[in-house]
Amino acid sequence: MEEEKLGVFEKFLSIWVALCILVGIAIGKTFHSFPDLLSKLEYAHVSLSVAILIWLMIYPMMVKVDFASIVNATKKPKGLLVTGN
């Protein structure tokens, strides 16, 4: 079986995360009203900006879900019973 090579994004993920943290800090320090604006974007005590970013993070994983295998899992529940504890 052939191994998949990591792309640039995956290979340097720690660096991307650190850069995003630094950019976020710089935005907060430079544009003092921006954090206040984000805090006003809230619905039912849920930050809309955080909800959107979490959705953007989870969506690619959800697109790869093989729903046919989920249906087939109900036909052979042995694996579900073993992992369900």
What's the topology here?
Blueprint: H1 8-11, H2 13-30, H3 34-40, E1 42-43, E2 46-47, H4 48-63, H5 67-73, H6 78-83
Antiparallel strand pairs: 1-2
Please give a structural write-up.
The chain is mainly alpha-helical and 85 residues long. It has one domain. It has 6 helices and 2 strands, in the order H-H-H-E-E-H-H-H. The protein has helices spanning 8-11, 13-30, 34-40, 48-63, 67-73, 78-83, and strands at 42-43, 46-47. A two-stranded antiparallel sheet has the order 1-2. A hairpin with a 2-residue loop joins strand 1 (42-43) and strand 2 (46-47). The mean pLDDT is 83.
Number of domains: 1
Strand content: under 5%
> Mind telling me the C-alpha Rg?
20 Å
Distance between the termini: 32 Å
Structural class by SSE content: mainly alpha
Mean pLDDT level? 83
Query: What string, H for helix and E for strand, traces the elements in order?
Result: HHHEEHHH
Helix content: 55-70%
Reading side by side through the largest sheet, how are the strands ordered?
Answer: 1-2
The main pleated sheet reads as: 2 strands, antiparallel
Beta-strand segment tally: 2
Ranges where pLDDT stays below 50 over 5 or more residues in a row are none
The best one-word shape is: flat
Q: Helix segment count?
A: 6
